[in-house]
Design brief:
The protein is of the alpha/beta class and about 300 residues long. The chain contains twelve helices and eight strands. It has an eight-stranded parallel β-sheet with strand order 1-8-7-6-5-4-3-2. The longest helix has 16 residues. The protein is globular. The protein starts with 6 loop residues before the first strand and ends in an 11-residue tail after the last helix.
Length: about 300
Amino acid sequence: MKVEWTGVMPAVTTKFNEDDTLDLNMFAKNIRAQIDAGVHGIVLGGSLGEASTLLAEEKNTLVRETVQLCEGKIPVVMTIAEQATKVAIEAASDAHKNGADALMILPPMRYKSTDLETVHYFKEIASSTELPIMIYNNPVDYKIEVTVDMFEELLELDNITAVKESTRDLINIGRLRNRFGERLSILTGVDPLALESLFMGADGWVAGLVCAFPAETVAIYELAKAGRAKEAIEIYRWFLPLLELDISPQLVQNIKLAEVATGIGTETVRKPRLKLAGDERKRVLKVIEDALKSRPTLPDYQSL
């Protein structure tokens, strides 16, 4: 499948049973809800997907299941989030064998690599596969920034074609677009900056709260791209308190609670994460409950 790095691509959560096995039934229910809402791709095994806790075979299972559910209608993107180049290359190969259409690659994990090490890491993985690649640029959480100059080197490889832009610096979208034009597709990765990023020229949105609210997320994107800014802004303002749940160390727990509220997920997380408790749980639940009470009626965005 030719991968178009545009539109809304959910960074989906991984569903677990209480016995810590994969909950493939609820996983399938959520993926079907995303497809029905009109998302443009599925991103597996990212930070929100609890990548650091998943076994290699579990990742392979998720790819196979998602490929089957998507039926070739939209691309399946597997995340590579590893500590060693050798392991990352093996993970990329596994993803390809199991049917993934593309990869999203995080910088080397656990320690802060130098710019040279980071570029070499990305290049070695990209050189090992034919799959198109999106680089995840999130210096806020991972302490490693992929600079514009580093992208100049990375784009020497034909299959590095996109960035998940999560610097939280809207100006960086302009910097990247001015330097690379259409050579590099730009997808925003920060939920509460998504509409601003789209107006700045981002091609798409790798989203988090879409896991619980797929229709609202896709509606904002489609309205924005259709030039119906006022309608997009109205939905976005309603959505913002929820979207801010994405920029938290507890984003997984927050979004899983939202999935429970909309009937397409479970709260179960994999240790060392724990379910939210106490005042923080009450706060998050109130954000979700308040949003559900005022949930907007959406226009027919799928006909745009």
